[in-house]
Design brief:
This protein is an alpha/beta fold. The chain is built from ten helices and twelve strands. It has one domain: Vaccinia Virus protein VP39 (Rossmann fold), CATH 3.40.50.150. The strands form three sheets. The chain has a seven-stranded mixed β-sheet, with helices on both faces. The chain has a three-stranded antiparallel β-sheet with strand order 1-2-3. A two-stranded parallel sheet has the order 7-8. α5 links the parallel β4 and β5. The radius of gyration is 22 Å and the shape is globular.
Length: 308
């Protein structure tokens, strides 16, 4: 039997590229996204239906959700309990900034953001930290204690740090988006004596715009809690804090693992090698914004690690 290898001609490649360009022009972006999301949902359900081993209860919960709902980052019913229209947005005319109330404290937002955008953003934040969310940083066994020295990297709105500000003795907040700095300064103004806000990337190099955590923190400066959520740059950050991971004791660390396919496995191995006891958050996330997403599709939201 002969097997013929069909070569793709340059003409065919050009036609394929042309068809793709026409598709992008003719079909609106929001419809393209819906089509891709629907295709991904089908791929996930098909993948798990053809596996030889039966899904466990954790997987079944996600699969049951996908069978009757569109794809979602948090594929669970809890997310449907949140309604952004119920969120009240206030105006601080003195600061010319808008804010919402979080546990009795003001959480400020970017100056240019509308009330609608703030409602939707805060709705996402509260849903993300729901007791059932796979993205929840803390639980009853892993929490902020009195006197913690907290380093929050990728602080954004500052909701996590604001929740810890009264217990922590010192907070170091890293945020790269300059538009957030004004809002963060307003949010943490009542505690400015113990809050340091740094507008730099935390990475594996140190220069004008970047710093490693090892370089930023003096060898005699003790931190006790490290929270990391840097949109996929977590591995570079970890490469720049080898001294801290190996030497700081005690230390608790919460790090997001859903941005890339192998982050959970790689980070877990690294942390165990440095003497941490690790656990992952409950449930799974479907981070379909990752264009490199592939089977098995479902990812743990974060690792919680403790070294005593």
């Amino acid at each position: 039997m002969y097997i013929y290898k069909i070569e793709t001609t340059e003409f065919e490649l050009n036609m394929s590229e042309l068809s793709s360009q026409i598709y992008r022009i003719v079909v609106p972006k929001f419809i393209r996204k819906r089509i891709l999301a629907k295709e991904l949902r089908s791929s996930i359900l098909n993948y798990y239906s053809t596996r030889p081993e039966a899904p466990d209860q954790e997987l079944n919960t996600v699969l049951d959700y996908l069978k009757s709902n569109p794809i979602a980052v948090f594929p669970y019913d809890f997310q449907n309990q949140y309604d952004p229209e119920k969120i009240e947005v206030f105006e601080d005319r003195q600061k010319n900034l808008r804010y919402v109330m979080l546990d009795g404290k003001r959480l400020y937002f970017k100056k240019r953001w509308s009330r609608k955008r703030i409602r939707h953003s805060f709705n996402e934040l509260t849903r993300e930290q729901d007791l059932q969310s796979p993205h929840r940083y803390l639980n009853d066994q892993f929490k902020i204690e009195e006197g913690e020295v907290l380093v929050d990297i990728g602080v954004a709105e500052g909701n996590f740090a604001l929740g810890a500000v009264e217990k922590a003795s010192r907070l170091i907040l890293f945020e790269t988006d300059k538009e957030w700095i004004e809002a963060l300064n307003a949010t943490f103004e009542p505690w400015k004596e113990k809050v340091l806000i740094i507008n730099k990337f935390v990475s594996d190099i140190t220069n004008d715009k970047n710093t490693t955590l090892d370089d930023f923190l003096a060898t005699d400066e003790k931190i006790t809690f490290l929270k990391i959520d840097v949109d996929g740059a977590e591995s570079r950050l970890l490469n720049g804090c080898k001294r801290i991971l190996s030497e700081q004791t005690p230390l608790k660390l919460a790090i997001c693992t859903y941005h890339k396919q192998d982050d959970e496995k790689d980070f877990n191995t690294l942390l165990i090698q440095n003497g941490f006891k690790t656990s992952h958050s409950d449930g799974f996330m479907l981070f379909y914004y990752d264009k490199k997403m592939k089977a098995p599709y479902l990812r743990r939201g974060l690792i919680r690690a403790i070294k005593s």
